[in-house]
Amino acid sequence: MKKVLAFAASLLAMAAVASCNSAPEQPEQVTYTLSVEVPDGATKALSLDGKTLNAVWASTDVVTVYNSSNTSIGTLKPQSSGSASTVLKGDVTGSLSAGASLRLLTPKSSWLYSNQDGTFSTVSSKYSFATATISVSSVSGSKVTTTPATFEHQQALVKFTLVDDSTTPVPIKPDELTISSTSGKIVRSVSDALSTLTGSLTVVPKDDTNVLYVAIRNDSGATDTYSLTATVGKNTYTATKSGVTFQKGKYYDVTVRMKEVSETFTVVGGPADVFGSYWNPADSNNDMVKQADGTYKSKTYNITKDPTSIGFKIVKDHDYAAGEWPSSDYTLTAGVGPFYIVFDPVNETITPTYTKSTAATIYTVAGTPASVFGKEWNETYEANDMSLQSDGTYAKTYNNVPGGTELHFKIVVNHAWSTNYGASNSDLSGDSDGNCVYTKSSAGNVTIKFNPSTKRITVQ
Asked: Which of 69, 218, 374, 385 is most exposed by smallest CB count within 10 Å?
C-alpha cells in the first residue's frame, strides 16, 4: 500500500513539474538607456534655402522606437539641433539583446498626412516622416548601443503654385485644395504595423496664398495621374496631369494652371412667347450668366400682355436629371414690362424681378406643411401663386408629395387674407378653421385647382 501511495505521489510530483515547465517564459522587461548616432546627411527635419531642401535636426523632434513586433517601446530626443548630424538618446522598455532589430520613426508616432495647412513650417514639423532600421550592437547593464541610423524620408515635399489658365495667369488662393490620383494610392495614414490607408488629401490653407507646401506619399509604385480641385468661395477650379512621379525624399516646385469649372443653368418654362421655347432644357438661348457674387442671372424677357401667367424652373447642364429648382414649378402672374430671374445655386434660392399685374386677380395657395408649400400659411409667397389655365381656371401642382401627407390649405386672393376660400368652397373635408383637408394616399403629384367663376376648389 505504501508503494502504491509512493508511486502516486511520484506521478503527482512529475505532473507538477511538467505543468511548471509547460508555462511560457516571459522575457524580462528592462528599462534601457538607448544611444543612437545619426551621421551627417542621414537626417529628418527640413529647411528650405531657395530651391535647395536641407535636412537638420530640431530640439523638438521626437523619435519613436519600435521593436520587431512593431510595438512602441520608447522615444528618443536629439542631443543637438540645427545640424545634419546628432545623437539620439532616451529610455526604452523591453527585452533587448545584441543583434535585435529596431525601427525608428520621426517626427511623431501618429503617422498621418491629413489636416495639412499648406505651410512649410507645418510640413517640416508634423508631416516630414522618416524611418530608419538599426541593430543593437551591445547591451551593458541598462546601456544599449546600436549601429548608426540612416533615416529615409517617406514622402515627397511638393510646393504647389496655383494660377488660373488665362493668358496672364492670376493667382488662385484656395479655401480648400483636394489632391487625388487615378491609382487611389495617395497615403492618408500608416499604422504601427505599417499598413496604409489611402485616398485623397484635403489641404485647408492657413494663409491667404496661392503657394502651398504639401507632403505627399504615393504607394502606386509607378507614374500616376493627379487631379487637383481648388475651391475659392463659390468658384471651383480643377487641373489634371498624367505621368507624374513624386519620389520619396525629393522636393518638387510645381506651378499648376487650373481651369474654372463651369456649370450651366438654364431657365425652362412657359409660355413660349416669353421664353422662346416651351419647357425646353436644351434651349441655350435661356442659359443664365454667372455673376461676380456667384449667382446666375437670366436674360431679360419682355412681357407684352397683362396679365401673363408664367411657370418656370432652373435646370442644370440642360438635363433635369442633373438638377432642377424648385421641385414644383415656380409660378407667377406678371404685367407688361421686363422680367428676369436670379438663381443662387449654393442656397438654392430663386428671385424673379417683374412688374406685377394690375389687371389680373392673383390666386395663391396658403397652407401646411412647409415640406409641400415651401412656407406655412404664407399668403404672399409667390411660389404658391396659381397659374391661369386655358379654360379660365387656376391651378398649382406640387410634385413628389409623399404618400400619407395631410395637406391643410385655403386659396387667398391678391396675397391677402381679406378674401379667401376654404372647405366650404369644395367637396373636401375641412378642419376646425375651415381649411380644406386633403390626404395623399400614395406618393405622387398633387394639383390644386380653383374656378374663379364658381369659387370651387378641387384636387387631383
From this structure: 69
